Amino acid sequence: MLPEREPTLRGHGLVLRRPTHDDAALVRAAGTDAYITSVTTVPPAPATDADVVAYIARQHSRLPSGQGVQLVIEDESSGGAVGQIGLMVKDAHRAAIGYWVDPGARRRGYAGRAVRVLSAWALDLPGLHRLEASVEPWNDASMRAVEGAGFVREGVAANWEMVSGQPRDMVIYARVPGVRGDLGTRG
What we know:
The chain is an alpha+beta fold. 26% of the residues lie in helices and 35% in strands. The protein is built from five helices and ten strands. The protein has helices spanning 24-30, 34-39, 49-61, 110-122, 140-148, and strands spanning 9-11, 14-17, 68-75, 81-91, 94-101, 130-135, 152-163, 166-175, 179-180, 185-186. Strands 1-2-3-4-5-6-8-7 form an eight-stranded mixed β-sheet. Helix 4 (110-122) crosses helix 5 (140-148).
């Protein structure tokens, strides 16, 4: 299902691209957010140079290992990196989307736009039949982001994911090929 190389995707005023060592400041900023560090492998502040290099190397290793694709979210007009989005393979026909936005860049629509761009690309991958997103029930902004990208809420799954070592309920969303991302309807 996955491509041989990380794609560079453009749309909605964003560029989604391969992480580089120039993204160290973004990784350090994300490490100041306790929630990001609890649900990702972003090193918590204060991260050493070695921590940041290891984090970026992990992102690069995901595609060759078949785990998925991790991309930096970059504002196309400013060229500034504002977050990260990824596609994680769940099985031969199913993948999940996950993302985070730098705390200083939130409330500007970056997450929702990035989800639109990545999900449109992912749903064209051969063999992919289902794209999922899971969101904690309190995270209204993230729910708006995935719903705006055409994901349909399927329900709440009890103890679905581990967050900070604790099982947490998650709202489960899905998109499937043939469903229009702007309305969530067949079209």
